[in-house]
Fold:
Amino acid sequence: MTGFRQLPVWWVRDEVGLKRFTGGKSSGGSIAALKCLLGIVLSDFSNQAIRVSYTDLEAITGLSRPMVIRAVRKLEEEKIIAVSRGENKNVYRLVYSSSDMGWAKVPYDRLRQSLCRFPNRGDASLSALKIYIYLLASRPNPTRDVKITHETLRDRTGLQKNRIRPGIDLLINHILIHVHRVEEVIIKGKEQRGNNIYTILGDLRMS
Structure:
């Protein structure tokens, strides 16, 4: 199964954004929630009524069942998904905002192979997931490249400065992105950090 899946991005763009998934003592739950969201997205092409079991989500994400259940509740609380619970499988619907119907392309094959191998604990894993989702949401059509500074990544994800690099390195190691690093540049006589270029890897069905 190739191509991309659709991820609604209103919640990435709103005032709270990815900051709703916090680190510290909450990092394990935040990692689980983001992994489960991506796992739900990867489970179905239509993204209308996604029928998937906890067992399937465990396999896709590498999470334990208690963490999957906890993650689903967190996504519900944030109104990112809606859930109709059944005996064997739940039905998930990705929630769109009436004021922002935008969505991001999520490369299926590349992420499906990598998601379960992402650590379920640690600052690097949470940073990587938040950065990856932000890059997907920020990628303009019809290019694979996103030009952005570390300052913007920190502002939009809520990550501390020292958490950005480990997250990016983890994404590179899992072959989800390529980074063209731009050194400092001189703008109006002042030295400033240039925009790095992040290339989203995987099948986006681009012409």
About this structure: Residues 4-200 form one domain.
